[in-house]
Automatic annotation (TrEMBL):
Residue intervals of the Apple domain: 67-149
Biased segments, Basic and acidic residues type: 167-185
Claim: DNA-binding is one of the keywords in the record: no
Organism in which the protein naturally occurs: Malus baccata (Siberian crab apple)
Region listing for Disordered, in residue ranges: 155-185
Name under which the protein is recorded: Protein kinase domain-containing protein
Nucleotide-binding found in the keyword field: no
CDD domains: PAN_AP_plant
Annotated transmembrane regions: none
Keywords on record: Disulfide bond, Signal
């Protein structure tokens, strides 16, 4: 089997498609004047280095977290975002909003959280450490609750009161209830028949194997309509359970409208 990857197709890339373009705690925007911006409550680290244009350095907090006095920290709700890279995230599918908030406040490394199940209102994902690869979206997108110090949140509230009508208020404030339902995420995924999956991957043949990642191998296949797909299969030898695998599927499904990857469906067999 040839271990090398071949290019099947290509398309023009947007500037924001470049991974980690705006560094840690920065976001890529649709602003033609300034593509990279820091999240509210952060400032460019390049200012400290005397280079105002080096976004690879990312952003740092304006004010440090309390940590030891966790009740003095809070969260600011950012809306319409592509969620950060999930490498350093953790998912609990049964936790409610208040429990997730409390868990995040109890760990000084916790930076942000979001709902992982928009349908039921339960289940949350938590991020630890710097937030990487955030992007603003024109439509849809996800909410992200970012941890800030109490003093920083007080400044934000004061600023919003003085600048009514500022676009940033809609971006960082509460979601407009009049738009409830528009662009709402639908995470319902169809189930495929096992025999169909087995057939399109040629019985998960080694010739169709793309590689292995977390939880198991991935194989290429072609559906009856000619669409090429990749099938990721849970492997018992990887020592991970169904819950962990489903956590990954939930996060990928939630991100599928953001041009990262599209989940067509799943299959439960055996």
């Amino acid at each position: 089997m040839d271990p090398n990857w071949g290019q099947l197709s290509s398309r023009p890339r947007e500037q924001c498609d470049q991974y980690h373009l705006c560094g840690a705690n920065g976001k890529c925007t649709f602003d033609n004047y300034q593509v990279c911006q820091c999240l509210k409550g952060f400032r460019p680290k390049s200012q400290e280095k005397g280079n105002l244009t080096d976004w690879s350095l990312g952003c740092v907090r304006n004010k440090p977290l309390s940590c030891q006095e966790k009740d003095k920290d809070g969260f600011l709700n950012f809306t319409s975002l592509k969620l950060p890279n999930t490498t350093h995230s953790w998912v609990n599918r049964s936790m409610n909003l208040n429990e997730c908030r409390a868990k995040c406040l109890g760990n000084c490394s916790c930076m942000a959280y979001t709902s992982s199940d928009m349908r039921e209102g339960t289940g949350y994902a938590i991020w630890y450490g710097d937030l990487l690869d955030i992007r603003e979206l024109v439509t849809a997108g996800s909410d992200l609750y970012v941890r800030l110090s109490e003093s920083e949140l007080a400044l934000d509230t004061s600023s919003d009161n003085q600048e009514e009508g500022n676009d940033e208020k809609t971006e960082l404030g509460e979601r407009d209830q009049s738009n409830e339902g528009e662009g709402k995420e639908n995470l319902e995924l169809p189930l495929f028949d096992w025999n169909e999956i087995d057939s399109v991957t040629e019985n998960f043949s080694t010739e169709n194997k793309l590689g292995e990642g977390g939880f198991g191998p991935a194989h290429r296949g072609t559906l009856a309509d000619g669409q090429e797909i990749a099938v990721k299969r849970l492997s018992r030898s990887f020592g991970q359970g169904l819950d962990e695998f489903m956590n990954e599927v939930v996060l990928i499904a939630k991100l599928q409208h953001q041009n990262l990857v599209k989940v067509l469906g799943g299959c439960i067999h055996g």
